[in-house]
Design a protein that fits this description.
three-stranded mixed sheet; 129 residues; single chain; binds FE2/S2 (inorganic) cluster; alpha/beta
């Protein structure tokens, strides 16, 4: 479920509740109608935050995102949560998790977050057996 504050828009991917689709659809409608938007805040799946930023950049609206990379030690020492923001290396656990969404390298973040996908699947299968 995704929401836009001020007025509440709720979307579900499958249409099981309120509007069918992604939050980016009401967001874009909202930005088209309302010129006075101080800040857009994106929290959720990386692909959603990436697309929110794509739209808000088009409308020149400041956007903060709360990133959720893989975290291991949470101290800035392991490097697990490394993200690139404004072409600089940041560690989400100590420098974030909130960043200017228009400066985040989402492609890299998505690649890094999928590094252990096969191991995660194996782990789930192993725990079910
Ligand atoms: S979780 Fe290890 S550096 Fe951030």
């Amino acid at each position: 479920m995704n929401a836009i504050c001020d007025e509440l828009y709720i979307t579900t991917d499958d249409g099981s509740y309120k509007e069918k689709g992604f939050v980016t659809q009401p967001l874009e409608r909202y930005l088209k109608e309302k010129k006075e938007v101080d800040l857009v805040y994106g929290i959720g799946p990386i692909i959603m935050m990436k697309n929110v930023c794509r739209i808000t950049k088009e409308y020149d609206k400041p956007t903060m995102v709360s990133l959720n990379p893989i975290m291991i030690d949470g101290t800035g020492m392991c490097g697990g949560c490394r993200v690139t923001v404004d072409n600089k290396i940041k560690f989400c656990c100590v420098d974030g998790p909130d960043f200017d969404g228009h400066k985040v390298d989402f492609e890299e973040l998505m690649k890094r977050n999928s590094l252990y996908r096969d191991d995660e699947k194996d782990s789930i299968l192993f725990s079910i057996k």
